[in-house]
Amino acid sequence: MRPLVILGSARPDGETRKAVDIAFPAGSADLLILPEFIIGGYDYQHRNIADAFSSFAEAMTSVGKIVFATPVYWYAMSAPLKFFFDRLTDLTENLKSQGKALAGKQVWMIASGTEETLPEGFEVPFRRTSEYFGMTYRGAAYLYTGTDADLRAQTAAAMTAFGQSITDGR
Fold it and tell me: What CATH code would you report for 4-168?
């Protein structure tokens, strides 16, 4: 079964998309691009129940492997992905069956940015959210997008290996 990649970037054809394409060549993963869907913010009264969030929840429950992809924005995940993570609260309230169906799923994260490494603590929301829903957080890969060509090539090679390990089930 192919992994599901949820791309949370305001620029869906930018560096993070390149990282996803390096990790998962065409046809090796299913891709959902958050900005292409209308997903409202978390609402205590659930007035946005008819937006696209429930289709994302269904997609997540139908696969065994989920990969979140985000650029590093101000040392944290992107705004589109944070908005989506806030909506995961629906999976504990009005979409409980989908929330419970996430248990046992495997989760990874892909990030891109101009710093040499991921910022300290960047993975915490991914790991802790995975734990909360009974999923297993398996780690991250980072594509350096700065001007050091050697480092960029090194992280691109690591991204290729990362994606291959997910699709091969390692």
Answer: 3.40.50.360
